[in-house]
Amino acid sequence: MPISYQVKQGDCIFSIAVEHGFFADTIWDHPQNKELKEKRGDPHVLLPGDMVFVPDKRVKEVSEPTDQVHKFRCKNTPKDLRIRLMCLDNPIGNMKYALRIDGVEKEGKTDADGWLRESISPNAKTAKLSLDDGTEYELKLGKLDPADEISGIQGRLYSLGYFEGSVDGRMSDETKAALEVFQRSQNLDVTGEPDRKTRDLLIEMTGK
Description:
- The protein is of the alpha+beta class and 208 residues long.
- Helix content is 26%, strand content 23%.
- It has helices spanning 13-20, 24-28, 34-40, 150-159, 173-185, 196-206; strands at residues 3-6, 51-54, 79-84, 86-87, 90-91, 96-101, 104-109, 115-120, 126-131, 136-140.
């Protein structure tokens, strides 16, 4: 039966779809999710407390002769994890790395622009990234709130190294100071406020 699913921290349309046995587009493009789609704009970035309509499943029947072996292909919807390694304003290219997600380790190296790209399960929540220089990172996947929320601004500033405070959704003095440092470093108007140009650049630099 159809349900109204309340979004938890770390959820996105893709993880919700996998959990309930759907393709992401089936849920995201459903008419009863139109208002949410227009509000958030990006199926990767939801806010805890958002309500997502999950429709009832439709049964597909396939007729095949008995006493024979039949192969059925189960379609999957892996997602791309994208991380850009930077040192100040310079990309870290050709850096070897090991990425462990859900007990599976993948190895590779960043491209010339510092980008790491790997396919992962839509409902993966954590990962460990180990670089060839000995640096290690614990990654919390799907934790960024929408960029029109203060918590989303804080999360992006934190990811880029401009903010070290708590991602609590409060427009604190520390948040304003981080915004000023970011704006100054990117040649934006230094206002300490999350204006449209600042939000758009934060989205661009964090990939969502």
